[in-house]
Amino acid sequence: MTQSVFPHRHLLGIQGLTPQHITMLLDLADGYVEQNRAADKKKALLRGRTVINLFYESSTRTRTSFELAGKRLGADVINMQVSASSVNKGETLIDTAMTLTAMHPDVLVVRHSDSGAVQLLSQKVDCAVINAGDGSHEHPTQALLDALTIRRRKGRLSGLLVAICGDVLHSRVARSNIHLLNIMGAQVRVVAPRTLVPATMSRLGVEVFHDMREGLKGCDIIMMLRVQNERMRGNFIPSIREYFHFFGLDYEKLGQAKADALIMHPGPMNRGVEIDSDLADDYERSVIREQVEMGVAVRMACLEVLARNYTGGTA
Ligand code: ASP
Predict the structure, then answer these.
(1) What pLDDT digit, counting tens, does each position of 90-108 carry?
(2) Which residues of the chain have pLDDT under 50?
(3) How many C-beta atoms surround the C-beta of residue 278 within 10 A?
(4) 4 CB-near residues (< 8 Å, 6+ apart)
(5) Ligand 1, CB within 6 Å, residue ranges
(6) Which one of 9, 29, 170, 217 is CB 3.0 to 4.6 Å from 228, fit for a cystine?
(7) Residue 21 near residue 6 (C-beta atoms within 8 A)
(8) Which ligand 1 atom is at minimum distance from the Cα of 142?
(9) E strand or H helix at 179
(10) Most ligand 1 atoms within 8 A of CB, residue of 63, 164, 168, 173 to mutate
(11) Could you tell me where the DSSP H helices lie in 192-287?
């Protein structure tokens, strides 16, 4: 029996969660995968509740899947178009949050370019807050959906060898996945050029490789990361061509991993930069589409547990 109570008011990161809480969220999400594949996808579990998506950075998958997740649970979902909002008139993050909470949302889903901004906001508002990605800090629902994808394919997380490859320095996806995989007993490797590995990595208990072929040897899972040009201040890679040659995933480098190794990418992909385009579309090996599907289910699970906690009722 997994624990059925999620003791946190907000979901700000994976760090601090227990294996039981992660398992509980994944089990709940598993049930929603089946619901999402049925003709009638809608439940009334969150009827009367309001979810606000407040995105200060662009997003396709995350924002859409939070919207779908809320709607499939029967909640009212509002998307804040930040470019068309008061933010452009100079309103601060906290002012915006206070204005929104005066309208009594139950859950605020927030993405922001500054690490720590979502946590700061969670201290100021009354409702539950979900971190939909803050700077290069955390992206907890991405790690949960990655874990659900892996668990459904491999039947477990514990004992798997996972290589996280590419622009680790700027990646909140890498950080959240490292925490989750460590908590769940997987073994994590980071594979990247020296310029794209933060000094803190060794403290997180991962093995660091600068040679992709070495790093991929014997892996069960290969998580590719987007080269995040928008976060780069300076020259981190010599050229796209050289980056792809040494760190882009292609069939030849994939040959080092286990024969049944799965390829993952959180999206959006830079085809021909961190991943070969044909390989990304090779559904024998790539589970990139499944990750998107699992994203809706995982976000339904997160909305459910936090909305339930927020009122203290039995949503
Ligand atoms: N979509 C993910 C994120 O928001 C990964 C990426 O942008 O590269 O962090």
Answers:
(1) 678 888 888 888 999 999 9
(2) 1-3, 312-315
(3) 11
(4) 24
(5) 133, 139, 172-173, 226, 228, 266-267
(6) 170
(7) yes
(8) 2
(9) helix 172-183
(10) 173
(11) 212-216, 240-247, 251-254, 277-280
